[in-house]
Amino acid sequence: MIRAEDIRALAEEHLLGTPGFLVDVTVSDGSNIRVLVDHDENTSIEFCMALSRHIESSLDREIQDFSLDVSSPGLDQPLKLHRQFVKNIGREVAVMPVEGAKLEGVLTSVEDDHFVVQTREKRRIEGRKAKEWVEENHVFAFADVHWTKVMISFNNNPRA
């Protein structure tokens, strides 16, 4: 039986000393192996293929047949690791806190136990006729968030 712990060890061995890092490993019924890997700069097909070849060469199909899928987390997947948050500083994210409503803004900083999202909206300021842009920082402890996802944007400058 193929175990997720064994696949995790093989992946981490291959990724050691590289800008790549393991996000998740699952092994489901029928030995369907799914490895999610990310990269500090960009996750290429070649990067995923190299990891796939490393894992596959360490397993024996004569002992147990398996399917192997190595990919990067899709944009629809929530951020899981601290390193993923750091990688996405400056990008627009959606945050679903444990308490409160969903919030969208720019991920501006990440610390060991929390991250900061800056929102920007037009508000009417007391004593003025026209609305003005108001920026506000929201601090979230990792433990107080259901999920955080990077938002897909085709605008190079989200603050324009």
Description:
This protein is α+β, with helices and mostly antiparallel strands and 160 residues long. The protein has two domains: 68 residues, GMP Synthetase, Chain A, domain 3; 69 residues, SH3 type barrels (Roll), CATH 2.30.30.100. Helix content is 20%, strand content 40%. The protein contains three helices and eight strands; from the N terminus they run H-E-E-H-E-H-E-E-E-E-E. The strands form two sheets. The protein has a five-stranded antiparallel β-sheet with strand order 7-6-5-4-8. Helix 1 crosses helix 2. The relative contact order is 0.14. The model has no long low-confidence stretch (mean pLDDT 92).
Q: How much helix, percentage-wise, in residues?
A: 10-25%
Total E-strand runs = 8
Low-confidence blocks of residues: none
Strands across the major sheet, in which order? Answer: 7-6-5-4-8
CATH topology group of the largest domain: SH3 type barrels
What is the C-alpha radius of gyration, as a whole number of Å?
20 Å
Number of helices: 3
Gist of the model:
By secondary structure, this protein is α+β, with helices and mostly antiparallel strands. The chain has three helices and eight strands, in the order αββαβαβββββ.
